[in-house]
Specification:
alpha+beta; Arc Repressor Mutant, subunit A; three-stranded mixed beta sheet; 17 helices; globular; Cro/Cl family transcriptional regulator; DNA-binding transcription factor activity; Lambda_DNA-bd_dom_sf; DNA-binding
Length: about 475
């Protein structure tokens, strides 16, 4: 038996009340005074080993259940970790008191919270479905500031004319030629006294970039690829030079919280860095000549695959547009954490939540480009490509971070894009060349889909005991 003192007053009181006993009756059965039992029930006295043994013998209870029932406390932690309730409790003591003193109240809170989360997910799915049909709706689940930023940026074109002009003006000032990195380093030191240093992992294990204002040094992690190191330097330079233009764009996004505005500021600084690394005019000209071959563009401009693909989604200048690409980046678990498009990410027409998309299959073939024609239930067809991306270099003992990017456009642009050449007979309208997808499992009504992960919210489940379909979730 552990020497740890066990205070289980509320549980003892619950045992007594469940059996309809008075304090005097229970105290007599345990061989203690009613006043001592009262102190135990109010957690002013611990349970002794002798009392635990008497409780187990008299009421046939599990001794360990009095000291190891942490499930309600764990569930309550989950409830109060939600952004909606974050900060409501100053510490965990109140949760402990609820879990022990009022377990039925705690269980009711947990049940109510789980019902709320399920309802919020259903409302979010319903909102997406209505949006696909052209109906606007304000239904939404609880969002963090970063979710608010992503929603705003995903639903507008990934093109900022004012930032493009800032990038072009900065390029004229730098006159970088083929050495943008050297030009940025020189400008930072000459104009602001900032020296750029690449630091080893042991010195800077947790950061990509860190600016030390006291020593006027910009530290960049050696974990990053040369392309990402250049982007981090460009981001810092853009945050310094274009802070007024970035602030104006952040203001125009009309975000609600200061934290969301800070997140948007860094996203826009990264956009500006890409515009500096891949100037609009030269990049658009090269993209058209290369038929939007991302590997050709990444080599020509000295950038990464992800940076070149991201830049393709920003070619929406009036009078000088490129193919209106959209992109999505996911991780191993399928979490979508970056979406953008030249005319906004096509939530209504494409969705991006189908498990049959090549962006998920790309993890089985790292570094390879997968190209497909994907058809939606309404017949809309898209040319999509997918490829894995490598994150910061990890140590031998660390698991490398790997994500995958999906780049897509309407199939009507197939003649302008080199990736359409790999489709059989170059005819995406032939049924054998199309991958039949949906916006997301909960919004898709394709029957017999082997990849279905959830039932659709628009159809009742098929609960026929005599018939089992190919899908994991049959529906009527």
């Amino acid at each position: 038996m552990s020497d740890r003192k066990i205070f289980a007053g509320p549980r003892i009181r619950r045992i007594r009340i469940d059996r309809g006993l008075t304090q005097s009756a229970m105290a007599e059965a345990l061989g203690i005074s009613p006043s001592y039992l009262n102190l135990i029930e109010r957690n002013q006295r611990p349970l002794t080993v002798q009392l635990l043994i008497k409780l187990a013998a008299a009421y046939k209870i599990d001794i360990h259940a009095l000291s190891h029932d942490d499930a309600p406390l764990v569930a309550l932690r989950e409830v109060f970790a939600d952004p909606l309730l974050a900060g409501e409790l100053p510490g965990e003591q109140e949760l402990l008191e609820v879990a022990q003193a009022a377990p039925n109240v705690g269980a009711g809170m947990i049940k109510l919270y789980r019902a709320y989360r399920e309802q919020a997910e259903r409302l979010s799915d319903l909102s997406d479905m209505l949006a696909r049909e052209g109906h606007s709706t304000a239904l939404a689940s609880t969002r963090l500031p970063i979710d608010a930023v992503r929603e705003v940026l995903e639903r507008r074109p990934n093109h900022f004319p004012a930032l493009e002009e800032e990038a072009e003006a900065f390029t004229r000032l730098l006159q970088p030629g083929d050495e943008l990195g050297a030009a940025l380093r020189s400008w930072l030191q000459r104009e602001h006294g900032i020296v750029v240093k690449i630091l080893p992992v042991a010195t800077m294990p947790n950061w990509r970039r860190r600016y030390d204002r006291h020593s006027q040094r910009l530290f960049i992690s050696e974990r990053l690829s040369p392309f990402d190191q250049l982007r981090e330097i460009a981001i810092e330079a853009c945050l310094i030079r274009a802070q007024v233009a970035i602030a104006a764009e952040v203001q125009a996004l009309k975000l609600g919280s200061d934290e969301a505005k800070r997140i948007a500021r860094f996203d826009l600084a990264r956009y500006l860095a890409h515009a500096l690394m891949m100037p609009y005019g030269p990049f658009l000209t090269a993209a058209k000549r290369a038929r939007y071959d991302v590997d050709v563009l990444r080599s020509r401009f000295g950038v990464s695959f992800e940076q070149a693909a991201n830049r393709l989604t920003a070619l929406a200048r009036g009078g000088g547009e490129g193919v209106p690409f959209f992109m999505m980046e996911v991780d191993h678990a399928g979490t979508r954490f970056r979406r953008a498009g030249a005319i906004g990410f096509p939530h209504a027409r494409f969705g991006g939540g189908c498990p049959k998309l090549p962006v998920h299959a790309a993890f089985a073939q790292p570094g390879q480009i997968l190209a497909e024609a994907a058809e939606m239930p309404d017949g809309a067809t898209f040319l999509v490509i997918a490829r894995t991306l490598e994150g910061p270099q990890g140590a031998f003992t660390e698991r490398p971070r790997r994500t995958a990017i999906l780049l897509g456009c309407d199939i009507e642009h197939r003649d302008a894009v080199i990736y359409a050449d790999v489709l059989p007979a170059n005819d995406p309208k032939r049924s054998e060349t199309r991958v039949l997808i949906g916006p997301a499992c909960r919004l898709c009504e394709r029957i017999g889909c082997l990849s279905r992960a959830e039932p659709p919210i628009t159809r009742p489940l098929g609960l026929d005991e005599m018939v089992t379909g190919l899908s994991a979730f049959d529906f009527q």
